[in-house]
Amino acid sequence: MIQITTPLNFLGSVYRNIRQGLTDMGEMHDLLEQRPEVQDKPDATPLQVTGGHVTFRDVRFHYMPERPILKGISLDVAPGQTVALVGPSGSGKSTIGRLMFRFYDVTGGGVEIDGQDLRDVTQSSLHAAIGVVPQDTVLFNDSVGYNIAYARPQATRDEVIAAAKAARIHDFIESLPEGYDTQVGERGLKLSGGEKQRVGIARTILKNPPILLLDEATSALDTQTERDIQASLAEAGQGRTVITIAHRLSTIVDADQIVVMEAGEIVERGRHEALLAKGGRYARMWARQSAEIEREDGAQS
Ligand code: ATP
After folding, report:
1. Which residue from 61, 86, 95 has its CB within 8 A of the most atoms of ligand 1, so it is best to mutate?
2. Percent of the chain, pLDDT > 70?
3. Phi/psi zone of residue 23: left (φ > 0), alpha (ψ -120 to 50 degrees), beta?
4. CA-closest residue to ligand 1 atom 28
5. Taking 70 as the threshold, does the pLDDT of residue 105 lie above it?
6. Sheet holding 67-77, edge to edge
7. Distance from the CA of 139 to the center of ligand 1, in angstroms?
């Protein structure tokens, strides 16, 4: 028996250690898709976050040399500001997020957080400073409480509950048969996309990073789910620098800065009202999405 269970126990504990060590999707990327070309410098120092000022200086980037993707992106996101990246599919929005996380190195220019070039800091400190809310939150086969606390395993139950309340998912969890101890994931209770995302947001709130990177879901959500998620994200963004990769313009009208991308370049930037008044690309995108929403509403009623 011992011969059989020992290796199994050992594997179980390795698995658990790996799982415990993954504090968010970003670190999961880190582990599962570690890219040998991105390495800490021998003299890399931990990132010192003083306010969460994110700067892209004339950033150029390609995945393959023959195909430039970002063609000189300059962005300045002041501490506590919210910036929304919008633009057609393939324009480079997610690539900007990946570079901020240093999933790849820029091929020209530089990315800085509070004046420190990302290539000079340790990746672990960078990843600890950025909370990623991905389009699809991965849930583990464990309790919903564990799934939230996973961002900070030493968190108390009260802290987990406070994060769930802020993410507008507490009442839902309380309504489950075993509350926070209810098993979720593939082998447990299946949560809807919106519920899963709010668990992910609670996880990020508990991690309490100074910078948030939000990758908004592309899939259509019903109005109530969308409202719940927006409230949850607004709460998560309080007092943090937020970079949102936005797909639905209705969610970003309050952003401090809207950046409109097209084919790897910034073609417009400003606040919602100013961009509407300008009557350019953003105004046309807005008119198109508003017409689509009206058509959908008409079709539903
Ligand atoms: P979407 O709104 O569809 O998510 P996006 O604006 O976020 O699009 P990116 O994902 O940044 O666009 O992609 C920009 C371009 O880079 C696209 O043409 C895409 O095909 C290309 N690209 C993205 N990832 C890779 C990769 N790993 N290798 C090669 N090309 C890539």
Report:
1. 95
2. 84
3. alpha
4. 63
5. yes
6. 67-77, 54-64, 108-113, 116-117
7. 25
